[in-house]
Amino acid sequence: MSAVSLLLQNSMLTQSRAYFRTGATLDVEFRIRRRPDGKILWIHDRGYPVRDERGRIIGIAGISTDVSERKRAEEDLI
Fold first, then answer.
1. What pLDDT does 60 receive?
2. I want to staple 50 with a disulfide (CB 3.0 to 4.6 A). Which of 33, 36, 59, 66 is the partner?
3. Which residues make beta-bridge pairs with 46?
4. Is 32:4 a contact under the CB 8 Å cutoff?
5. What is the rounded CA–CA span in Å between residue 41 and residue 73?
């Protein structure tokens, strides 16, 4: 991810990893700073663990969506 610098604290990253270790789903919004222009983007991230036939977590599937326009519209309403 050399093009993006996450604006998340280590505790947020640790919390995200814990979701998948326990088998829970992840549904969070966070900001990232895009390089080289420094523009801030809001991301909505959803994910869940993928399990094998024995129920063991073998991967992660999910989607990340840029919700920056929605966030700007929400701020304009305030």
1. 84
2. 59
3. 27, 63
4. yes
5. 13
